[in-house]
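hey can u check if this looks right to u? its 158 residues, i copy pasted from the old doc so theres a chance i mangled smth
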Amino acid sequence: GINAEYMGCFFCNNQRALVVEKQAHGSDDLRQVFSDRLRNIGNMLVLIDNIEQPIYFTRAWTLYELFVASTTPDIKIEPILTNAAYAAVSELRVRHVKKIVENVDSRNARCGDPTKPPEGQGKIDEERIKAEIERVCGYDSLNKGVKAVFVRIIENVM
């Protein structure tokens, strides 16, 4: 049989406990907790809903998690594309994909609905993950790393 193990961060990382309640394994070791769990699994799936404007690029957590996965040794990062995204990929050229990733902007990425200002729990969550991004690597490094990984993921699908 096939052995398939993948990280489902919403099952493995209780983000409320990590970020809001600051329980054991608070934000100071969020990267370590996440990368340890990734190493135990060895694989990460990236869900791509739309090639032109992926929701993935608007979410602070997904950008951070992809960056951590890409800087953790021996992690295999694989895409899952919706049917529409897969159809769009077959029509793309690498040059076009590189233009699309210019939209990666972790500084303006959100937690919650990207069309609304953050409030309540979403605002707290966003402040904490952005503080973690600044502490670990900075926005520019995260953006550069995520762009490179995303281009490589899409090139492998093409």
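The two ends are 28 Å apart (CA to CA).
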